[in-house]
Protein 1
Amino acid sequence: MNSVPVPLPANRRDTRRRFEQWVKHPGCGANLVSAVHNVKMGAVARRENPAAPKEGQSVFALARGRRFEAGLVANGGEKLLRAMAVRQMFAGPDPRFLDFRISINGGPLTDIDDAIDHTEDFLRTLAAEGSFAKGSFAKGSFEGVVSSATLRIPKGVMLPEATLIIDALSVRLDGGRPVVSVGEIKTYADRGGHTSKSDLAHARAQMGLYVHALAMVLEQLGLADLVELSLEGFLVLTNPGSNNPTVRVGEDLRYQAERARKGFELMEAAARDMSDMVGDDEGEGPKSLFDMVLAAPTSFADACLSFCERAPSCYAKAIADGDGAALGDDIDRFLNGLSLHRADELMGGARPRNDIERDFLRRMRNPLDGAS
Amino acid sequence: MSSVVTALRSFVVGSGAIAVVKAPPGSGKTYTLVEALAAGIKGRRRIVIAAQTNNQVDEICERIAQRYPTQNVVRFSSAGYQPPDDIDERVVFIDKKAAIPDGPIIMVATVSKLALSKFDGDFDILFVDEAWQMAWADFLPVRHVADRYVFIGDPGQIPPTVAIDVDRWESSEHPPHQATPTLILENPALTGLRTELRLPTCRRLPYDSVRLVNGFYDFEFDSDAKPGERFIRPTKRARADGPAATGIDAALEAMWAMGRPSTTAIIQMPTPAVGLPVGTDVELARFTAAMVARLLERRCEVSTESGEKETPRSLRPTDIGVVSTHNLMNTAIQNELRELSPKYASIRVTTPERWQGLEKPVMVAVHPLSGVMAPSAFDLETGRLCVMASRHQSACFFVTRDHVGATLDDHLPLADQALGCHDAVGKGHALHRAFLEYHRERNLIV
Amino acid sequence: MTNELRTIRRLRAWHEGRPIPRGEKVNVHVGDDDEILCLSFVRMGGESLPWAVAVGHPHEEPRVFGVPDPRDRDMVADMMVEIGRIVLEHFGHPTFASDVDEAMSVYEFRQIWVPGISHLELLHSVAFAYARTTWQRADVEVLRALGNLANCLFVDAQRPGQQTVVVASSALTTAFDFPSSPVRQAHLGHLLAWMGREKTRDSRLRAATEAEKSSVATTLDPEFERTAVQPLVERWNAPPREQRAAKGKRVAREIAEVLGEQLRHRHSLTVKTIEKLRKDPRGANAGLSDLVRIGVDKFSRLWWDQVLRELSDDPEVRAYWPGLRGDNGARQAAFSYQQRVAASRQVMHSLVHGDRDLQEEELMRGHGVRAKVVAVEGGGARWTLMHDFPAVPDVKVGGSLTIAGAPKLQLKVLSVSVEERTMIVIPSWSAAKYSSGPMAKRASDPTWRGRQLILIEDFPVFFTESMSYRINATTESGFDILDYFRREISSDIDLDVDPDEGADE
């Protein structure tokens, strides 16, 4: 049934990762160049310093993620549908499952264009008369979930286009009208209020991107009035200590969708004058691309530690330059333009030369000493 | 009499379990509460009213005593409480539960006092005033006071203070730190048990300010004031001396540029190229104080009600209130005002928390995001902005560094709330942007 | 404001080139060796249960347990049974006492120390896995008991002021201000390197940066995991499952060695932290003994009492274990919340009087006022104070303030004049409350005049605690919110009454 797998072209890969990479530190020029041109920072870091530690996630964690997702969609999505039904995500008793994964991901579809065609065909069929070619259902009859619905974003800085794969897209009928919700599958555990806030923020940012992209695609297909796009998403997490899924519904995405829209705008504005070269599938590419990233100005911040492989070298540079951010973003602000070197001198008794330095010494006094 | 009062009176003598009254700022919350008591008095009910502070309790006692001249009001207070000297003589103070009279009664107390006493359905109905300031965990200790409850308050204001880590309850169906009425209104299990009422009209704010403030609420309300009825207007020409004077002059001009006066404006101060001052923005404090002085220097007149439209009155220092979110900023402004003139020492300068429930003809507010380059969840919480923008009867001036619009535009807020919770940070960000956009569209940012 | 204070201190630490003491005293309780059990975990990426565990008292070599592949839940459970017996014995669980004659009859203070936050979170995962398990296997009661204890430890770890569960990195940052960003301060190795014997700032910084390269979290460095451990795990898994134990002894040993080295590093950092704090010349805040005493009471109620209930012969008696994801019942959530609010107030109440730096922090937080006594009148019945910080104090008329350093001396606020910067207060004592020292004076003593005092908001711990017990003293189940509202309301009034006629006007 499947033809030879065709990898996603490099310039359409990893849209989500690259966008989120940029959002984590928009103020860093190198980060912008890296995200727009799909040059992974890990590769840049190793060019800069061959001894730099290798990037990456745990191999075991990646394998577990794949196993978990595969388990959810196995046997016609049995596990996933059951977990969703527990949360009453469907109005009817017989939700269906459609698998739009491509063959290299273990799915039935040939390649990414096939997945995009299927997704668009599916969305049209949800809204219009006629049956869905591959899944045979009629308008107003489908309830269920689609694995790996794939969208082509009609515009964006990652030209010529960007592609997004939605982990799970649910459809619920509300008075015969289809309501679609986006979902994200994560392997971390649902620990109630103790679930990692940064992990959740990341997942919601991704879902916000899906909502934004889906709205654009529905608009482009002329379906915006026919298919309702929910601003609430759902998360598929694991039950702690097991591989069983647990579904959380009602995830508020109203503002995250707007964040994605705004983020793309800002990224586009920041990248307006950049070339349209992109790195290859591995985030590697011609030397000129690396040179562009290496030549771009860097700006060290606390956030760098959490995502950028060049953080150690930028940190060392920040220390050498006396950049207050090396001691934390708050110190950077507190120094108000002074370098750590100069602050050191002032704390050591040097005479202040200007108002900023006098102000610094005033603020360094115990605030209680200044009270009168 | 409003339909809400009628409905509440029916509720008082009916058998419903919970009534929640959403009251926009200056919409007659206490009036409604006091009027609703009529049914209880006639029906010989035992009614208790809980408020958050002793001042609020004393004020409610006064209002009840004035409204129902033959009715005694029992004030249940702590033993050492010193009542105000001028409190109505029909307010009977007691401090022991055993002293609470049998039979029909209107009793008023703080939530804390009720929580410390042991009740078991001693009253027919419990009214909670300023109910959005009462966390669910603070309601449960007083729930046995009565069988039935009326919660009345302003849902747009500052939520209950949470000083501890609440991860453990964030995903709970009953977050103990959540405002009691919010929890009740959002809990589907209580749908059939609750009556939701909304006070429809804001009486305090000018017409256009109501449109602005309504954005902070999830329901529509009207303005009692007619368009153009409230305003601030300078009567004296004076040469502007310094940026604050220029700013106020430009704001007053912008407010009168559209034919019908606007009653809010934002006055910006440049953000220094070298960066914002760290800590208290003393320059902005000086600017704010100078703006207040300029309003008085130009002998502004204000209309605070329909009767003053044709005969506005002169603005006095005590007609002006100043609000900022930080105590140190307030201190700095106060010091600057004192420096300018001893007359200005009477101008109240304090935090939004302390302005809740109060009003002034003219407010000057330091925008809560001024000087904040990376807004946090606390910064983006809209309760404070809502309180700041809803204290005035005639006009409100926001003062801020000019980076706020760009800061908000560039800020991409993360949604790191607990599972299943609302994205309050995203909502705050959107409302803050809408607030600026409202003024930008009307050329009210100078 | 307190954040600004910490920013300033961090810059001072940078200038000095070393961590600087935070507080006049050490505000972390370090138990005796026998009271402390150090726990360190390593888990496989993506897994939530331990791969290997180090456990031991500070003065001894840790015992290290591990499995070749933690995705085998049977093997993990076998390991956790062994760990469980040790931890449960440490906490005095009656079933697991090695010496029945010396078994505790009441709960006695115990501590566990973990290197970092991720190790504490792993306890939560252990709780999820075992506290409610219905697994049919040998020693499942050990797993359940361990799961419940782990959950109680995780819950108690969030109670302000608790001293039962100590995260070593947090203990150090409570006691010192470090010259590095808060993000880096989560790494225990980084912190201890700053405290090492290097002579200069640069050399300490280099040591701290180097130390960061070794993970001390529960997960291994991904590259290390990929290169040093993955091949071994693959070798272990190569034979069919039933043959692995027999054929994989050698590779299992190799995995244990690799993981053991990782764990011993984490364990040694925890022990170093304990030693550093013990040797600190500042000494411990005297108020910590209060917190330990309160902690024993609270943890006893949370865990020990439930253990006894579970062991009771009476079938009517059952244990009430805290929820795993949180307190979902409306009543329990509100009760726990008020208990925590009370605890947060108790912390300050207990510690602030013994540490002048903490008093300053409280002032900066707006929880107090610094003032000079300008008049002592009415035979000490009334004092007039003039405050200099803050300019607009957040003090309630009718509220109460305590003189910092003298918890027995309270002042009730009669009036405040912001304009004059004065306040009138009523001392709560007349005869001297202390036998010696600068506070051993009658309220009427004229030498109070001219004294500058720090006055701390009097934390109503008792009131908040009362609120929590009032929530619990109830006949409703409190689990379902409807319990609070669905009572039958008797309606004996004439509904036709026109409410408008109700007013006596």
Protein 2
Amino acid sequence: MLLRVEDLYKRYGKEDVLKGVSFSLDKGETKVIIGPSGTGKSTLLRCINRLTEPDRGRIWLEDTEITSPKVNINRIRSQIGFVFQDFNLFTHLTALDNVRLGLIRVKGMSKKEATERAMAELARVGLADKARAYPAELSGGQQQRVSIARALAMDPKLILFDEPTSALDPELIGEVLAVMEGLARSGMTMLVVTHEMGFARTVADEIIFMERGVIVEQGPPEQLFRSPKHPRTAEFLRRITDLYGGEQ
Amino acid sequence: MSLVFSWDWLPRLSQGLLLTVQLTLLSMAFGGFLGLVLAVLRVYGRGPLYPAYLLASAYIHVFRGTPLLVQVMTFYYALPTVGVRFSPVVAGLLALTLNTAAYQAEYFRGAIQSVRIGQMQAALALGLSRLQAVRYVVLPQALRLVIPPWSNELIYMVKGSAVVYLIGVLELMGQAKNIAARTFRNFEVYIVVALFYLALILVLSLGLRWVERRMRVPGLGVSGRT
């Protein structure tokens, strides 16, 4: 098992956002988390690399307990890629420098080594020709692809995607999903929060349906989409299909 | 009334101008460094750094809350009574530095806080330590944002440095005062001095505009905000 989350709780003020979430992820697996807005999906992802501190529960990355107070969290984070909804590329750095920063400052690579690696990752997301461009000079889809390259360059054991296409114009969503699909096929371990049901259906090994801070149901896409066990899952899928359309 | 200017004033006024430039630039540089540390402590001073946060806040409050003139007098006239003695220039430079540090700290704090929170989160998510994230991601952006208010402070300090003539420092104002006292040409001397200040500030403003243009990130607005 690559990632194991056990009985995770998180409360913001008076609101319980996560109420005992447990699941696991095997190496090479892609799981997609779906569910209504405000049900704790993003909080769950942020707890996994402790950008948000969970109140209770434990998380393991392979044999290391991430939630242990003794753990070197910077080291753990360098092994977990994170792709944000609004990209969060470093605005003062070129695409190349965005990808190189972690390689040089975290992995201690030489500038030359880091440049080669960063260029390779930019090529992998189809943006080698944009290496010298600044984030504000790129489209949303290009920015998100650079941010995926930035995550990939660190050789992460797992990448967390927090609604990676939600901030994009509709015509730009496809290029980002295509990159993600390629990654999943190449054996990257991925945990993806998304409303893109087409992607969930075709790429996910398993789908997790979350609502109000708990996992309501999880299973392979076909099973979940065709014969959801829980009425709440069925209700959500019906609503989201009305909203976004079925097959994509 | 007839105006009488004299080229004989020029050497002394030039000396004064040079000292004004030195006092301003040195106090801005040292004060900038101290101000940056204070600002970072104000923004990130939580947990074990909390005492440092309190200290930084107290410092800023004291130095912004008392007149620069009082600070200058304190460093030159009051400290010797407890055994600390400085020459006029050192006392003046020290007071100017510590004073501008407090103001610059607040400008830096504002700039740091206007860098979007996602920038810090993305840096931490990559595995950078908090200090590295501040050093390589937040500050490079904040320092671009701070250029306009910082320019204001620089201009203020050019003029503010004039108060040290009161402890006998012969910067531009001090020289002017001496010449005026000797020649009784108050009107002419102070007009010339005012022109010196204006010219100095014009040069500094143009310099800063050039820096601002050079530091601009392609695709972003003038000061680095989208």
Protein 3
Amino acid sequence: MKHTITMTINGESVTAEVDSRLLLVHFIRENLDLTGTHIGCDTSNCGACTIMLNGHSIKSCTYLAVRADGAEITTIEGISPDGTNHPMQQAFHDQHGLHCGFCTPGMVIRSIDLLKNNPNPTEEEIRWGISGNLCRCTGYNNIVKAVQQAAKEMQKESQSV
Amino acid sequence: MFKCKTSPEVGGMGHSVKRKEDARFLHGKGTYVDDVKLPGQLTMVMVRSPYAYAKIKNINKEKALAIPGVLAVITGYDLAEYNLHWMPTLLSDTQMVLPTDTIMHQSQEVCAVIATDRYIAVDGAEAVEVDYEPMKALVDPYKALDEGAPLLRPDKEGQKDNQIYHWEKGDREKTDEVIAKADVVVKERIYLPRIHVASIETCGCVASYDKDTEKLKVYLTTQAPHAIRTIIALVAGHIGLSEEKIRIIAPDIGGGFGGKVPMYPSYVVAIAASFLIGKPVKWIEDRSENLVNGFARDYHMDCELAATKDGKIQAFKVSTLADHGYTDSSANPSKYPTGMFSICTGSYDYEHAFAELDAVYTNKAPGGVAYRCSFRVTEAVHAIERMVDKLAAEIGKDPAQLRFENFIKKEQFPYASPLGWSYDSGDYKATLEKAMDMIGYDKYKKEQAEKRAQGKLMGIGICTFTEVVGAGPSKDFDILGIAMFDSAEIRVHPTGKALARFGTKSQGQGHETTYAQILAEELGIPYTDIEVEEGDTDTAPYGLGTYASRSTPTAGAAAAMAARKLKAKGKKIAAYLLEVSEEDIEWEVGKYFVKGAPEKSKTIQDVAFAAYTNFPPGMEPGFEATHYYDPPNLTFPNGAYICVVEVEEETGAIDVKRFVAIDDCGNIINPMIVEGQVHGGLTQGIAPAMYEGIVYDDEGNVLNGTFMDYLVPTAVESPHWETGHTITPSPHHPLGAKGVAESPTVGAPPAIANAIIDALAPLGIKHLDIPITPAKVWEAIQAHKKK
Amino acid sequence: MIPSNFSYHKATSIKDAIALSQTHGEEAKYMSGGHSLLPMMKLRFASPEHIIDISKIDGLSYIKEEGDFLKLGALTTQSEMEYSPLIKQKYAIFSDAIKLTADPSVRNVGTIGGNIAHGDAANDQPALMLAMRATIIAEGLNGQKSIPIDEFFHGFYMTALEPSDILIEIQVPKAKNRSGGAYHKVERKVGDYATAGVAVHVELDDSGICQEIGIGLTNVSAVPMRLDRGEDI
């Protein structure tokens, strides 16, 4: 059964015909060639497929593409203009918050959503806030530091506006 | 401490420069295997066995082939026509690519479905009808050698039982004799369970065979692209895939940790499928396939440690039963079937040791795949470090004090270990002292005494490990006969910028940055001006790859040596340009100058330009060098880790309060990256210590084959790691470096286990095998209460 | 891991959903957040032929006090509950439990109604509902009905809901001056299903004497369970 869906992805409107069972992560990766969103577990445990849907981080491996009809989606490719860094990306770079890079897009998107609800989190709140995103390389210490740096930077930015 | 020789702009050794590879990963522009999309690409999905041991009576492809979009179902019979249904393992055992008659473990590949798209391929796999005749699986390795146990590998000529090999090292008689006479002997059977590295990216490939050019290109999740190319040529040379026609490309790798060293059957099937169909074929493993089809550890170790009554260690003996599943697919050097297990004598000075091991077949997935330590150092260190703590408990001595009294002393290096290694350097006393200072050991000892008086359970655990990495000297170390050297090739362009290529392959270690820093250190060319490439066998020099913490010890050394060749050539060019003799030229980072007249100088960039434009008559033009580095010895990173835990008696809940890790990995190239490696390794240390373990039932079914039940630690379980360093440079490595990435995975589990067992000591609990979960602790507490 | 083929239907209203359910019968399943059902479909433990998406139905997402009840719209996400000032101030037991349910990205999608309607004894919310003596409001072919929580859970993944019934609202007795509760969960790691969990709700009178107690248990039997004997004490 095919469905025509329209959504905004990274600021651009996309219309496509999809099967009922097509998972959003495959739609993003294979139909739209936005391969920054990854697949790590299939059981919504690892968070490598995390994207922003209507302003909230979600796991796109456990979401049907057809249900995203009308949604506004941001993937890692869309969080900052080409050649620039979102404060969260900059912080991951500065604090060595990534090794192999595979969990990084999901981790960055999740961390941005975390700061939306809690702009100045404690270390413990950060750890709980990224607990749906597995990283096998970094041991998380530097990811926590990165989120702390980004929180500071983003608060400065919001104060200066 | 290490003093930087270069400016931060040049970014040589010792500078925490930010990583050059980050930008693409941060923007979702990395290229991992599943991101590769070739025109006309097909997808392969494997049908896998629900049984651990079964005869295949029939495979009916019809219903699958009737699904529109399913192009082929490939079985072992199809591969047998090309003699491709079996392949050698890295340790010269044999492994099925696809079975023709017998299934040897649950989830083994049964056949492959090739379709136009992922979804159709999955439907196809479900539609294949396989008629199995299940048999009673052999699951318990202790029963593998029983009389009457089914012979699992009758296919192997001369195989009369389920023993794969017996290995031993050391003097059994003398060790037994010392143990028999010793004042104190502590004994324990220690089990290190099966675990899986579970890199967040699973394994996969895109195989693309072009029937016109007869060339095979494979994008592959591999840590060792060159070795894999050679293996493919050996496995499939007879069908025309000869080595010069094979190109392996390891693109960005989403974590390896040793899980991406082996040649997996599905790789071969995808290559065969592309060869037969003439189109690119992609195979991407799903998480369950990943977790269930390989493993690390699975050593059952019977340990005995003998000492005088005041705690001077005299002898260590360990007899191990190794469960290898149905084939020995360990990625070990051929002369070292148990890897570097004989490092098990540890950081202590004593004379007598004996280690032996029997490896057996069972109906489980083949293994010996690594888990951030490929060569059995983790098992060895766990054995000795648990036993040293057990000895301390037995004679009532502080475990730190016991270690101080037995350490190999700084002045004893190079130290000849009882089982034949030559430890290069270390200062174990200083390292442990630093760890104790940093955590506040005495303060915690006091706190522990107070808590115990209140009936609370608090434990302090120490591990002082010695690692052995950097394989290896080629006289001893080879894989399938290929010597374990590694390589670097540097091309300095006329404008003074450079391209450097290596035989290794980063999976997150940051080679694009650290190798550039090594070259910056040696040549004075800023690290930002040096591009590093790895992973493409058509362009990179031959090397054995990245695993076993060998990249810095081997390829890093090769980079330094190749740079030194360039520096020597540059000296001749500088002398020519400055019109003095070569003997009058001196070098300081980035610059040649005339002895006694430092104002007369040429930069490395001037010299590079001259190498293409104005070189001495008779000199070969160009500014390039290659080096294949064959290390004279291994390196022996070491460390002292201390862990403090509290245990809740009512629930068994374990709270890791502090964890301090002091590492001596020799000279450090990039402190930021080294610290990051240690953090990551520590989390992969707490994982098997408290959470992970592949569990089988009596039928050979895996009970925890997804991330819902295979418990990879999140940021909440992972403690806030505290790290530090001591430095004793490796005397034989050109940069004095030793390698680091595996040390924390090796050192953390015993520190954590020792801490938890120390916490439980007042209840009379003397040992628990990892993973030490709250449930296991609770059960142990209940059992001891009953006593 | 990919689900079997099915047909997707988007319901625009409760009536529409019930009609779709009637048309497609036993082979149809409602999906709200989908975080319980879709993983089972991907593992092919469940292969419904029709999915009726109720997540787009307007007006089923709310947290409000009305009359004697706290009313929770079935499509309220766990995150909306987590960040609701009303919940934080007066119904802290929910905050306890939600922090321990799956992870933040899952909670952004997973709904309170789905967590209960799935009938999984391992889910966290049912124990809370038992402790707080909630009432489930469902709508079906014969209009609305209210089901006391003690009559709601029937067996392993089985509830009092008829195939066409949709859980639309949960009603929890309004917090009193001196009432409160907590949820404690033993889990192997954060986000895991409960090894076991216990929700306790108590109400005190002005002199501090316990007047009411509710205790619900997670994942200790095939159905979410009330600890009757504990309550009697």
